[in-house]
Amino acid sequence: MSDRPPTSIILPTTRWTDACAELAVQLDDGDELLIIHDGEDDPVAGWEDHPEDVRLVAAGEPEGCSGKANAIAVGMEAARHDRLVWTDDDFHHPPDWLATLSADYEKHGPVSEVPYFVGRDPLSVLLEPLYASAGSLPLYLGNQIWGGVVMFDRGDIDGSAFLNELRRTVSDDGLLMEYLQVTNVGRTRIVPIGGSIHEAVERPVR
Asked: Most buried in the list 18, 43, 62, 175, measured by CB within 10 Å?
């Protein structure tokens, strides 16, 4: 058991993934993992055999914002703790991920990491340099936030104003950058992308 503050991890997803299981086993006493899904029709919604420190929260349909922004807003309102983590379910969270991120926060304050996108189909492989030059590199050099990994405390931002704007935006991490200064520790997380032509085209358009 660590002496760090209890932490709420906010993870938007509609199904129980490897990332969910990886994070669930990293929780200390008092921590919680919030699985933020859309509604009762999602595969994860009917899962009853989950650990006590994992909570399933239905976000409902977004109104005036993206689905991701809506999920984050609902998660922040439902979270029991002041120490918050945003993360995604499309990359591997190693066993020391939460502990390392917490140690980074104690040293630097709010922190983030860097995604490294790896293609799973020929078109996505060709697009890897684009993701690196337009995404990963600016995040690192500009000390910017990646919404896939960010830890901060409620006291670090104007939470009320942020949540109001979050429900009117399409870019959750873009908005957070207006409210929060982070240290991007430069640690990379491999994020698989693509798998089909549709998926390869969808991500850069999104």
From this structure: 175
